Amino acid sequence: MASGRRAGVDGWDRRLGLVVDVVLAVASAATLLVTAVAIGVSWGGVYWLFDAAAGLVVCWLALWWRGQDRAAAAGLVVAVVAVLVAWAADLPQEPGPATVLGLAVLVGSAVRALPARRAVAVAAAGFAVVAGTWFAATPSSAGITAVTTLNALGWLGAIVVGLSGRLRDARRRAFVDEVRREERMELARELHDVAAHHLTGIVIQAQAAQLAVRKNADDVGRSLADIEAAGSEALGAIRRVVGLLRDGDDVVSAAAGCEQIGELVRRFQDHGHGPAVQLRMPADGQVWPAEVSSTVYRIVQESLTNIARHAPAAGSVTIDVAQDHEALTIEVTDDAPTTPTRYRRGGHGLSGHGLRGHGLIGMRERVEALGGTLQAGRRADAGWSIRADLPFAASGRE
User: Fold this and answer.
1) How many whole angstroms separate alpha carbon 210 and alpha carbon 230?
2) Parallel/antiparallel/unpaired status of strands 276-280 and 316-323
3) In the chain, N or C terminus with fewer CB closer than 10 Å?
């Protein structure tokens, strides 16, 4: 179905989309059946066939193609044709209840998802159908008919629901944009530290080269090579940080900065009165570029913060940082039971706010900028898991 086929949605969205599809399918079938029986009883014969055919087409469009302008346009055309044919052939007034249901879904989803001008056009066309229903009412009808009232209520409900969803989507986008701006401000501060670190090394190497010229000319070539290597490393690190600071959705770079993860874990255990933490790190002496170390630190920091806030019943936490020849993997898991607060979408759980209101959005921004992937979700038995995979090339190693 339409919702189930969307790419890039998480498991919750797929389940919600499936529920919506099932509810819509059942409601459409029930409405078609009840309307057919009612027309058959009041009109007799096969007058119900035309209403059922129009309603079936519009409900099918709503079930499979809602949110698309072509589907909304097709549904509206079917409704207009139904109104005209019913008026000319003296059939039961159209659009019937099933068509109204399908049109409400098509118009509401279009108002929510389409660009502003097309959304307004679809809403206006829906109102035109309501007006056409009123004009096509039989002369003997006193006042506004029940069919016209039903169509007006369906159109009004579609507009209200569509605009509400559109506003929620706009607030969500504004929140994500704010998170990205805050994250990039943090990266700008880290950029200063990266540049200062590397440029200080270059200055020291240049001073050493000057001494080598006076003492031993043979060492000049080696000093210049060191300066070249340090400069290239500095340019690479700065380029990766600046890449994430650019606006746009095509960012493929990352951040900088480094702190000790072990110290972070100790502070968590000393001050949080939380669960025991088992930390597994690569062998001592492993060195990563600043932007990779910063990303690893941020993932652990955000995960521990959210555990402290939203998983107080956790008995243990495992932090596993592993490295092979192809990737660096960071996984943080806990054994806390599922709670509604923790999994609230867009709230204060892992899918919403983290240490500074960033949560998964800030972590995903950094990980994907390094060319990696981030996964978060419930574990099969109990608890929550955050897993990030960074390509080994992201660490600057071949």
Assistant:
1) 17
2) parallel
3) C
pLDDT, residue 238, reads 65
Find out whether 114 and 65 touch, Cβ atoms under 8 Å: no
Q: Are 147 and 94 in contact (CB under 8 A)?
A: yes
List, in sequence order, the alpha helices (H) in the chain: 2-5, 11-43, 48-65, 69-89, 97-113, 116-135, 146-215, 218-245, 261-272, 290-310, 359-369
72's CB contacts (< 8 A; 6+ apart) are: 106, 107, 109, 110, 114, 122, 125
Answer whether residue 2 shows pLDDT above 60.
no
Buried/exposed code over 361-389 (b: 16+ C-beta within 10 A; e: otherwise): bbbbbbbbbbebebebeeeeeebbbbbbb
Prior bond to 289 cis, omega within 30?
A: no
- C-alpha torsion angle, residues 79, 85, 88, 93 (rounded to 10): -50
d(CA 347, CA 290): 31
Encoded amino acid at 185, one letter: M
pLDDT in tens, 328-377: 899 999 888 765 545 444 433 333 333 344 567 778 877 887 788 888 88
Six-digit token pair at 47? 């007058």
Helices in 286-358 by DSSP H: which ranges?
A: 290-310
